[in-house]
UniProtKB/TrEMBL annotation:
<feature type="domain" description="YbaK/aminoacyl-tRNA synthetase-associated">
    <location>
        <begin position="4"/>
        <end position="62"/>
    </location>
</feature>
<dbReference type="InterPro" id="IPR036754">
    <property type="entry name" value="YbaK/aa-tRNA-synt-asso_dom_sf"/>
</dbReference>
<dbReference type="GO" id="GO:0002161">
    <property type="term" value="F:aminoacyl-tRNA deacylase activity"/>
</dbReference>
<dbReference type="Pfam" id="PF04073">
    <property type="entry name" value="tRNA_edit"/>
</dbReference>
<dbReference type="InterPro" id="IPR007214">
    <property type="entry name" value="YbaK/aa-tRNA-synth-assoc-dom"/>
</dbReference>
<protein>
    <recommendedName>
        <fullName>YbaK/aminoacyl-tRNA synthetase-associated domain-containing protein</fullName>
    </recommendedName>
</protein>
Amino acid sequence: MLVPAEAEALTGHAVGGVCPFAVNAGVEVYLDESLRRFSTVFPACGSSNSAIELTCAQLEQFASNFCGWADVCKLPAPGAEQL
């Protein structure tokens, strides 16, 4: 896990605003398959107090350095208690 200063140096965005838009050159952007279960998503836009509503198709279209979809998020089992 990166510390906040490392995350900002790598992506160009401070923690809380890390997003797939306008990232530093060389940063590969992958979107998690789990996002596709939503009709729209609200990614940050570079600051902790900004967000934008997008469909997954729009998110893929506008993400900088988009490399593909990845399946890395483990969803809770149906009926499992969530915190």
